[in-house]
Amino acid sequence: QQPVQSPQAVILREGEDAVINCSSSKALYSVHWYRQKHGEAPVFLMILLKGGEQMRHEKISASFNEKKQQSSLYLTASQLSYSGTYFCGTERDSNYQLIWGAGTKLIIKP
Amino acid sequence: DTGVSQNPRHKITKRGQNVTFRCDPISEHNRLYWYRQTLGQGPEFLTYFQNEAQLEKSRLLSDRFSAERPKGSFSTLEIQRTEQGDSAMYLCASSSRHGHEQYFGPGTRLTVT
Q: Which residues of A touch B31 (CB under 8 A)?
């Protein structure tokens, strides 16, 4: 079952913060986060494993709440380069197959 | 290591024709995935290989779609008797035996007229 991402779209000024959520009705083994720019392939950002720690890559971090089966992606002091569509991919049972959300479009304005 | 490559990048075909796409994964990545993506949607899983074995195939995939990975390296995806609904971006990704993260190729954009 497809995970639900929220919000569908976000418009920010450069330097503002954003949170993107990804929720599943099924128990998950991992949650993956990717960013896709228009006309390009998705690019891996980070992976959250069941029982794992909160992850961070520069000013982007993510958490995974196993009780709620929800992951959140935090973008701090957003930069113009953060613009794009963010997808979460959820994995059940460590089976290497990802079910993807519909995406959250992030627009950063100068 | 130049990443995942896909060929062709664009394909325009007439309805009813067969098309074949190729994916070269990152060297030594043992897992290879095919996805389909339409505008405004996330990637849709099609099939998955571990080495040369095709382990999963989406139930949504009709019999017109077939994929191979004969030597556990590159893979091909064939669509027979194409339909206009097959128009989409076809993405290939690979991952190593040491992790779950997937690395995507640039995709093949298929247009069926």
A: 96
Residue A94 with chain B: CB contacts under 8 Å: 100
Task: Give A90-95 contacts, CB < 8 A, sequence gap 24+.
Answer: A90/A3, A90/A22, A90/A24, A90/A26, A90/A28, A90/A30, A90/A31, A90/A32, A91/A28, A91/A29, A91/A30, A91/A31, A91/A32, A91/B100, A92/A26, A92/A27, A92/A28, A92/A29, A93/A29, A94/A29, A94/A30, A94/B100, A95/A29, A95/B56
Q: Tens-digit pLDDT profile for chain B (113 aa)?
A: 579 999 999 999 999 999 999 999 999 899 999 999 998 899 999 999 999 999 888 887 788 999 999 988 999 999 999 999 999 999 999 999 888 889 999 999 999 99
How far apart are the CA of B42 and the nearest CA of chain A, in angstroms?
Answer: 5
Task: Please check whether residue B58 touches A, CB under 8 A.
Answer: no
